[in-house]
Design goal:
Layout: E1 10-14, E2 21-25, E3 35-36, E4 43-44, H1 53-57, H2 63-71
Bound molecules: zinc ion.
């Protein structure tokens, strides 16, 4: 266990095209912009205003976004709005 136990690293992505769900481990230091659905091979991209596919389609927001929520510290790779 690390010292960032409050950060959830697994998120279940739900494909908006076919509804398939897949649990993925998120990269901690980068946002994932594209994700290809294993089931229908649709290439998912973040919705407007979201930094990564996990924020748009996952059950859990990406680690940088979680860290901001937890600590208030801006550490995301995403552009600030
Ligand atoms: Zn799909």
């Amino acid at each position: 266990m690390g010292n960032s136990a409050a950060i959830e690293l697994q998120s279940t992505l739900r494909c908006p095209a076919c509804g398939a769900e897949k649990t993925e481990t998120m990269p901690v230091n980068a946002c994932q912009w594209f994700y290809e659905c294993e089931h229908c091979h649709t290439l998912l991209k973040p919705l407007p205003g979201d930094c990564c596919v996990f924020c748009s389609y996952g059950t859990v927001a990406c680690p940088p976004v979680q860290e901001v929520a937890l600590t208030g510290k801006k550490s995301c790779c995403c552009p600030s709005s």
